[in-house]
From TrEMBL, chain A:
It comes from the Bacteria. Keywords: Membrane, Transmembrane, Transmembrane helix. It comes from Streptomyces avidinii. The keyword Membrane applies. The chain crosses the membrane at residues 42-60, 92-113, 134-153, 173-191, 203-220, 258-276. This is ABC transporter permease.
Length: 283, 328
C-alpha cells in the first residue's frame, strides 16, 4: 500500500541486530562439528572395542592360569597382578592412540580442508574458537575415558572374582589407577590437537606424535640417569608411575605428584599451543 | 565498543541487544599492501565499496583480488595499510556472520559433513536461529541436498552452499570471490538476480571476477586491479565508455596511400592481414574527410564500439601476471 510496506526498507531490514557473543555458542558449534564427522563415532567405537579386547583377554588368561599357581604366587597375584589387570598397558596404549587421533582429527579436519577459513571468517575471535575446540574435545574424551576405563575395570573384576582374585575399589592403588587412566584420554587428545595445530598436515602429525610418545621412549635405557629423567617426562611413563606399584625398588624413584604434574604440563602446553598458535597466522 | 565511541548515530540503542542503526556499511581499503616474502601481492591499494549497489572487483588472475578479500575478512594480515568494514577492523569483531557474509572459496568446507550440519554449526557459532539454516538452503535451492555429504557435491552445488553460508547471518555486507565459477547458465542467471536484489535492499555487495563479461551484466560499479594495484574505480558505464569508439576499421582500395595520411593526422594505424586498417585516434568522420580530400576510395568504414572486455583487456594488458605469450 504505502511505499514503506511495499518496499523492503533497506536500513530497517539490514540493521545489524547483534546478540551478545557467548562462549557457549562456540562450544555448541564445535560439538556439532565434532559429531557431524563420520570418523568421530567410529574412532571412539573402534578404540573402545580394542581396549576391552585387550583388557578382557589379559584378565581371562590370568584367570585360567591362576588355579595352577602355588599359594605364594597366588598371593602375589592378588597383591600386584590383579591391579595390573585392571587396565593393562596395552589398553592404555590404545587409549592414547585413539584419544590422540580424535584430538588431532578435530583440528586437522579444519586445517587440511580449508574449513578453518570459513570458521575464522564466521568467528573472527580465533582464540575463542580454538578454546571451544579444546573444551569440547576435552569433555568428549574425558567421558570416553570414563566409559572405557570403567567398562574395562568392571569386566576384568567380574572375570577375576571367579577366583576371588579381584582388586576392588578398596584395594590400594585402584582409585588412583582408574583416575590416571581416565585422565590419560583427555591428555592424549590435547597432545594430538597441539601437534595437529602446529604441524597442520595429517601424515606428519601422526608420524611426529607416535615418534614422540612411543618410539623415542622405547629407545631409551631406563637405567641411565639422563634417559630416565627424560622418560619421567613422558605421558605413558607418567601413567605407569601412577598405576603400577613396583614390587622392587626403582633405580631412579619419582613421586606420584611428579607424575600427575607431568600429565598436567603436557595438557597445558598442548592447550596453549592450540589456542594461541592460530592467532597471528594467515589462513 | 559500539556504544559511545561517537561514530555511531544517536539511533543506536545501547542495550543488551544492541541495535546498530544507520552507519555507513562501506568497505574502506586504505593504502593496503600485502607482501608474501619477496612477492608483492597487493601494492598500496585504496578504494571504497558503497552500499546499495553491486560492485565488481575485476582483475586478471593473480591481481591480488583474493588476497584483498581475505584481508577484508581479517584472514590475512596486511603488511601495511588498513581495511575496515563499517568503520571497524573485521578481526576485532567477536562474531562475523551478522556483519559480513562471504564466499571466498567454495572448497573451504569439510566434505564429510552434510550441508545441513555445516550450516548448522556455523549458525550456532553466531547465535543464529536454526530455522535460518533451512531458509538459506531453500534460498539457494539446496533443500533436497541438505542431508547429503558435501563431498559428493558438484562445484556448482558447492558455490550455492557458499552463497548460503554468506546469507546465513542476513548481513549488510556481502563478499563473493568468483561466485559464478562452476554454475550452470540457470545458476548464473539466478546469482545475478540475487546480487541485484541484495544490493537493492541496501546491502553492500562486492563481487570479484576475472571475466569482464560476467561483470557487465552483474555490477554497476567497478574496482579494477592489476598486479595488486588499482587501475580504475568507476561506474560500469564510465568504464565501458573507455572502450567506445576507440578504433575504426577501414577497408580501402589504397591502404598504402591512406595509412600515411592518417598517421600524419596523429592516428595510429595497424594494417591487418586481411588488408583492413585499424585506426585508433581519429573518428570515422575525420577519416572519411581525409579520404575524400585525397581521393582515396573507401569501401567500408566501421566505428568499433569496443566492448567492456576490450576496455578491460587494454587497461590490464600491462598488469597481466600470467600472459599467454602469443597475444602480446
Amino acid at each position: 500500500m504505502t511505499a514503506s510496506t511495499t518496499m523492503r526498507p533497506a536500513d530497517a531490514d539490514v540493521q545489524v541486530r547483534q546478540p551478545r557473543a557467548r562462549f557457549t555458542d562456540l562450544l555448541a558449534a564445535e560439538w556439532i562439528k565434532l559429531w557431524s564427522l563420520r570418523s568421530t563415532p567410529w574412532a571412539f567405537a573402534a578404540t573402545l572395542v580394542v581396549i576391552l579386547g585387550i583388557s578382557i583377554s589379559t584378565a581371562y588368561g590370568d584367570y585360567q592360569s591362576y588355579p595352577g599357581l602355588d599359594a605364594d604366587r597366588q598371593e602375589y597375584f592378588r597383591a600386584f597382578g590383579a591391579l595390573g589387570d585392571c587396565f593393562p598397558t596395552g589398553s592404555a596404549t590404545f587409549l592414547v592412540f585413539g584419544a590422540g587421533a580424535i584430538g588431532a582429527i578435530s583440528v586437522l579436519s579444519e586445517f587440511t580442508t580449508g574449513m578453518i577459513r570459513t570458521t575464522f571468517a564466521a568467528v573472527p575471535a580465533r582464540r575463542s574458537v580454538m578454546a571451544a575446540k579444546v573444551g569440547v574435545v576435552t569433555a568428549a574424551t574425558t567421558a570416553f575415558g570414563l566409559v572405557a576405563v570403567l567398562a574395562s575395570y568392571g569386566g576384568v573384576q567380574w572375570i577375576l572374582s571367579g577366583h576371588g582374585a579381584a582388586a576392588g575399589l578398596g584395594h590400594p592403588g585402584v582409585p588412583r589407577l582408574l583416575a590416571a587412566s581416565v585422565v590419560l584420554a583427555p591428555v592424549s587428545a590435547l597432545v594430538g590437537m597441539g601437534m595437529g595445530v602446529v604441524i597442520r598436515h595429517s601424515v606428519p602429525t601422526i608420524v611426529a606424535t607416535i615418534t614422540l610418545l612411543f618410539v623415542v621412549p622405547s629407545l631409551l635405557d631406563p637405567k641411565d640417569y639422563l634417559s630416565a629423567t627424560f622418560l619421567h617426562t613422558m605421558v605413558l611413563q607418567a601413567w605407569q608411575r601412577l598405576t603400577y606399584e613396583s614390587a622392587t625398588a626403582e633405580l631412579w624413584p619419582w613421586s606420584h605428584t611428579g607424575a600427575w604434574t607431568v600429565l598436567a604440563v603436557w595438557a597445558l602446553v598442548a592447550t596453549v599451543l592450540t589456542v594461541f598458535s592460530s592467532d597471528r597466522r594467515d589462513h | 565498543m559500539t556504544c559511545g565511541d561517537g561514530r555511531v548515530s544517536p539511533l543506536v540503542a545501547c542495550a543488551e541487544h544492541r541495535l546498530v542503526g544507520i552507519v555507513s556499511r562501506m568497505i574502506e581499503v586504505h593504502e593496503l599492501t600485502k607482501r608474501y616474502g619477496k612477492k608483492l601481492a597487493v601494492n598500496n591499494l585504496s578504494f571504497t565499496v558503497q552500499p546499495g549497489r553491486v560492485t565488481g572487483f575485476l582483475g586478471p588472475n593473480g591481481a591480488g583480488k583474493s588476497t584483498t578479500l581475505r584481508m577484508i575478512l581479517g584472514l590475512h594480515r596486511p603488511t601495511s595499510g588498513s581495511v575496515t568494514v563499517d568503520g571497524r577492523a573485521y578481526r576485532d569483531l567477536p562474531r562475523g556472520l551478522r556483519h559480513v557474509g562471504a564466499l571466498l572459496d567454495a572448497g573451504d568446507v569439510h566434505g564429510g559433513r552434510t550441508a545441513q550440519a555445516h550450516l548448522h554449526a556455523l549458525a550456532r557459532s553466531n547465535a543464529i536461529p536454526r530455522g535460518r539454516v533451512d531458509e538459506v538452503l531453500d534460498e539457494v535451492g539446496l533443500t533436497d541436498a541438505a542431508n547429503r555429504r558435501i563431498g559428493g557435491f558438484s562445484l556448482g552445488m558447492r558455490q550455492r552452499l557458499g552463497i548460503a553460508t554468506a546469507l546465513l547471518g542476513n548481513p549488510p555486507v556481502l563478499l563473493f570471490d568468483e561466485p559464478l565459477n562452476g554454475l550452470d547458465p540457470e545458476g548464473v542467471y539466478w546469482v545475478r538476480g540475487l546480487f541485484r536484489r541484495l544490493a537493492a535492499e541496501g546491502r553492500t555487495v562486492f563481487v570479484s571476477s576475472h571475466l569482464m563479461t560476467e561483470m557487465q551484466h552483474t555490477a554497476e560499479h567497478l574496482i579494477v586491479v592489476g598486479r595488486g594495484e588499482l587501475i580504475a574505480a568507476e561506474s560500469v558505464t564510465e568504464f565501458s565508455a573507455r572502450g567506445a569508439g576507440r578504433s575504426v576499421s577501414v577497408r580501402t582500395a589504397a591502404p598504402e596511400t591512406l595509412a600515411p595520411l592518417l598517421t600524419a593526422e596523429g592516428a595510429s594505424v595497424v594494417r591487418e592481414p586481411d588488408g583492413l586498417l585499424t585506426v585508433v585516434g581519429l573518428d570515422s568522420d575525420r577519416i572519411a574527410e581525409l579520404a575524400f580530400q585525397h581521393r582515396v576510395l573507401v569501401h567500408e568504414l566501421t566505428a568499433r564500439t569496443g566492448s567492456l572486455e576490450e576496455a578491460f583487456m587494454e587497461l590490464t594488458a600491462d598488469s597481466v601476471e600470467y600472459s599467454g605469450g602469443e597475444n602480446r
